[in-house]
Structure formats: C-alpha cells, structure tokens
Amino acid sequence: MLADLHTHTTASDGLNTPADNVRMAKESGLQAIAITDHDAVSGIEEAIEMAKQIGIEVIPGIEVSTIEKGQDIHILGYFIRYQDQEFLQKLDELQHVRARRNEMMIHALQNIGIDITLAEVKAKVRRKDANVGRPHIGEVLIEKGIVHTMEEGFDRYLGKNGKAYVNPKRISPEEGIDIIKKAGGVPVLAHPGIYHDDEVVVRLIGYGLAGLEAYHPDHDNESERKYKKLADEYGILATAGSDFHGSRNEVMFHAPIGGKTVSYEVVKQLKRLAFNMQTS
Ligand SMILES: [Zn+2]
Ligand SMILES: [Zn+2]
User: Fold this and answer.
1) pLDDT value of position 169
2) If you write DSSP's letter for every residue of the chain in order, what string do you get?
3) N or C, which terminus of the chain has less Cβ within 10 Å?
4) How far apart are the CA of 73 and the centre of ligand 1, in A?
C-alpha cells in the first residue's frame, strides 16, 4: 500500500491532465495519489471524479510558492478544503504575483539576447484555468533549440543560479504554512534538500510543519537519510513524492508517478492531522 504525495497536472505546469495522473497512479499500483499543483487547486475535482471511477484515492493538495532570502521555498498542503472561498481568494492573489514573475523572467531572457515572448510561453498552457510557470518558459527554450532539456533550461536560465532567475516579493514560508492551515490542510516542506538552508528547515518545523518531504527525485541518498532522521528527531512525518510533471521530448522532468512513494500509513497520519485541525 503505497502513495505518491507530490504530482503536478495541467492545472499548473504539468503536462498531463489530472485524470491522466490518477490513471497512471492506478496503473502503477498505488493506493493513493496527491494532486499538488503550484498555487492552484483547479485540477482536484477532475482527479477525484476519475478516482471514483477507477477505485483509487486522491488526496486534495497544493504546493504553495513562498520566498526566503531570495530563494523559492515550496510548502505542500494536504487534505486542504479546496472549495473554501477565503482560500480561493488567497490563491487568486498569489497567482497575480506568479504572473508578474513570469513577465520579469521573460524580460530577463530578452535582455540577454534570447528571442522569447510572453505569448509564446502562454501558448504552452494547456488548460484555461491553469497557472503559467517556469517549465512553460523552459518548454519554449527547448522548442527553439536554446537548451536541450528542461534540466539544462533550469541550470542555465530558470533555476536559482540561472541567468534569468528573478524572484519578486512573495509570501514568506510562514505565511504559506498559515494559508494551508487556515484551509484545514496539513503543511509539509517540499524537497528540503534543494534549499541548502537547514536553519530555515528547523525554523519552519518550529513554526508548525507537520512533515518534511524527505524522499524526492532531487535528493541524493544522503539527503534522504538526513531529512528522514530530522523528521524523526522532531516527531514529524517523512513524506515522499515524485514531483511528476510529465515528460517533454521524452525526457522526464523529476520522476514518473510512483517514482517516489511512501507507505499508506503516512497518508493515514496526514488524514488524522487534518481531521484534528478541522475539528479543533
Ligand atoms: Zn517544488
Ligand atoms: Zn512540485
């Protein structure tokens, strides 16, 4: 009984529909799959519909983008009340910031002589209500032959050491945790190993994280062990997720669905925490 607790769909920058993700999860023999789009919940309903048809569990989730000392910190939220009006209003605000960031990054690319426009990037979005994100920009870079893979796109231009990386003012990780908790969700720090800032990790545990995503395709064995141990030390959950985004030009960005999994026991614990939060 396994679960993949981190997947993206066309509701943000994934390539597959929410229904696709659910089907693939079923095919990989998973018991449950979380839909965790960037600052978006518009894929959840479709995923739940498909899940009912084929007999698998969908965990309504989100991955909230926040910023700390100029770098992106992502907070996963599980069992959120994705129809909560106040929560949806908040997401709307976050999406405005996202849109501005995309424009800034495209400008930065143009300034270093790369021929790319916002319209080209927007054309890569597959759903009317979807969020535009960095992988959409990467897709244009690949199409134009400027880079060969998404990974190269992030290394050279879009990632935190990339030439076109910008990060306008966004909410703090603490605010991200608050937004998730207010919507009845359980906050878990996504891919702690990529921040190289364990002071922040420990601070956020103190602030109320319920778990660390110890197992992620961008973590090596050593960091998986390290964050599992840290989670154990603080008595919080160690979670796992593939961070599935689909594959472009046959190259998988992060891992396939089921590429990183955790025991269904962890899902039960997340559910218990959400229940306690929503009834307290
Ligand atoms: Zn992330
Ligand atoms: Zn993600």
Assistant:
1) 81
2) -EEE--B--TTTT-SS-HHHHHHHHHHTT-SEEEE--BT--TTHHHHHHHHHHHT-EEEEEEEEEEEETTEEEEEEEES--TT-HHHHHHHHHHHHHHHHHHHHHHHHHHHTT----HHHHHTT--STTPPP-HHHHHHHHHHTTS-SSHHHHIIIIISTTSTT--------HHHHHHHHHHTTPEEEES-GGGT--HHHHHHHHHHT--EEEEE-TT--HHHHHHHHHHHHHHT-EEEE---B--EETTEESS--TTSS-EEHHHHHHHHHHHHHHHH-
3) C
4) 8
Tell me how far the alpha carbon of residue 137 lies from the centroid of ligand 2, in angstroms.
16
CA angle 84, 85, 88 (to 5 degrees): 90
Give the Å distance between the CA of 268 and the centre of ligand 1.
23
- pLDDT for the residue 40: 95
What is the number of the ligand closest to the CA of 7? 2
Rounded CA separation 22/32 (Å): 9
Strand pairing report for 211-215 and 237-240: parallel
Distance CA 152, CA 235 (A): 37
Per-residue DSSP letters for 201-256? HHHHHHHT--EEEEE-TT--HHHHHHHHHHHHHHT-EEEE---B--EETTEESS--
Q: Which of 31, 50, 16, 61 is nearest to 262 (CA)?
A: 31
Where the chain has pLDDT below 70, the residues are 248-252
Give the relative orientation of helices 173-182 and 85-111 as an angle to the nearest 10 degrees.
Answer: 150
| CA of 63 relative to ligand 2 center, distance in Å | 6
CA distance 90 to 110: 31
pLDDT reported for residue 251 = 67
